[in-house]
Amino acid sequence: MPNPIPVIVVGMGERASIYAREALSHPDLLRIVGVADVDPQKLRQAQNMFHIPDGHCFSSVEELAAVPRFAAAVINGTMDQLHVPTSLPLLRHGYDILLEKPFAVSQEEADRLLCCARETGRHVMICHVLRYAPFYRKIKEALTAGELGDIINIHMAEQVSFFHHSVSYVRGKYASPELCGSGMLLSKCSHDLDIMAWLMGNVRPLSVSSAGSQFQFRPEMAPEGAGSHCLLDCPIERSCIYSARRLYVEHPQRWANNIWRDYGSRAGSDEEKMRILSEPDQPFSRCVYRCDIPVVDHQSLLISFAGGATGTFSMNGGASASGRHIHITGTRGEISGIFEEQCFTISRIDPCAPEGRRLQMIDVSDLQKGNAHGGGDQAIVRDFVAMLRGEEVSSCHTTLEDSMTGHRLVFLAERSRERGGEVQHYSF
Ligand SMILES: NC(=O)c1ccc[n+]([C@@H]2O[C@H](COP(=O)([O-])OP(=O)(O)OC[C@H]3O[C@@H](n4cnc5c(N)ncnc54)[C@H](O)[C@@H]3O)[C@@H](O)[C@H]2O)c1
């Protein structure tokens, strides 16, 4: 059995913990030998969970980079705006990195990271975990096998449910570039644009245009009589679909963990939760219409690819249910499906068939097992380890160069949106 790869975690938050826990379930793959986090509580938790010696616990990346390299790689799970600043010194120190998406918050930052990775000869693998989900993996296989002929259009839509949208993109840490470093398209949809670029294979994008706005979560859209805080001054709280009481206490499965994790009282009583939510400066009780959101709640893109193919993408926040929809039209047929439904349909053109087509349903539910990213979170760790060991990597494997396309589409789309939909040309 090969030795586990020694790995350090930087930013032991929600995401990095998911990857790091693979060391507990698969001790043959990797071993967590160090941790760096600015939060002393996170440091302590990680130290206990992975039996890390005191000398390998650091309260900053600078401290970590000041000691001789003692692991093969780093898992970087800091927030968006810290990805590049925390990765550069570690690459220069000789670490390979598994880095969360979005890996950079601007094209300049992305270029700086790529440049540093090339100069140092280190690997940076981006957590585009959806590539590893069986739903998208099987679609990729069907396209690679030529099932649809040549692709004419890929249409994708990401519906963000009203409860996810409000807790993360209105009241939570993704509501403002000041908090997370990104706009909504980058933080939520860099996955989707990465998937589109990946499915297009060698066909490169040529241009992007985009429109979007903050449509819903503005004071003008507040219901008549609405207050500014659900539990302090809102007479219509009981009938509002965004009532903090309803979303975070009465229906605790609805992303409420996002809050109770932050406030450290996840296991507390309903009375305790109501007391916390009733605090005047409690962000999760603010009226969703009065949060002064600088990011969009919906955005659409039109992408031209070489050879005349197109890609269309829409992100819609505040939907009745979350869902990633895809419809691919090719010269020989179509694929359509919804990620959350764990199946898709291939419709092949067949002039001899009664309806002119043959339908095949591909069910991936056995493979996907209801996991949020379809098992991608675990599969990417295995692929990262395979890469570090010099073993064969999976067909979903993504290099930093590969990952650049989806992020570049986001940056160009944002510039187009800010310039009233002006077409932005994609350069290589
Ligand atoms: N791949 C995906 O599907 C996916 C899904 C959700 C979030 N994300 C991304 O994952 C990243 C992390 O999100 P999260 O929800 O785990 O965040 P989090 O807030 O739970 O974790 C971030 C951690 O970084 C630590 N930290 C902050 N500043 C630091 C610094 N200077 N040095 C070291 N540690 C520092 C924090 O204390 C915290 O423990 C974000 O970029 C987010 O956009 C990716």
Description of the structure:
- The protein has 428 residues and is of the alpha/beta class.
- The protein has 3 domains: 5-126, 3-Layer(aba) Sandwich (Rossmann fold), CATH 3.40.50; 131-217 and 293-425, Dihydrodipicolinate Reductase, domain 2; 226-290, no CATH class.
- It is built from 16 helices and 15 strands.
- The chain has helices at residues 14-20, 22-25, 40-50, 61-65, 83-92, 107-120, 134-144, 162-170, 177-180, 184-199, 244-250, 256-262, 270-277, 365-368, 376-389, 400-418, and strands at 5-10, 30-36, 57-58, 73-76, 96-99, 124-126, 151-161, 205-213, 298-305, 310-319, 323-330, 333-338, 343-349, 357-363, 424-425.
- Strands 14-13-12-11-7-10-9-8-15 form a 9-stranded mixed beta sheet. It has a 6-stranded parallel beta sheet with strand order 3-2-1-4-5-6, with helices on both faces.
- Strand 11 and strand 12 form a beta hairpin.
- Helix 5 packs parallel to helix 6 (107-120), helix 10 packs across helix 16 (400-418) and helix 11 (244-250) packs antiparallel against helix 13 (270-277).
- The chain is globular and about 65 Å long.
- The two termini are 42 Å apart.
- Nicotinamide-adenine-dinucleotide binds at residues 10-15, 36-39, 42, 60-61, 77-80, 82, 86, 100-101, 127, 129, 187, 373.
- The site of nicotinamide-adenine-dinucleotide has 25 residues, from helix 1.
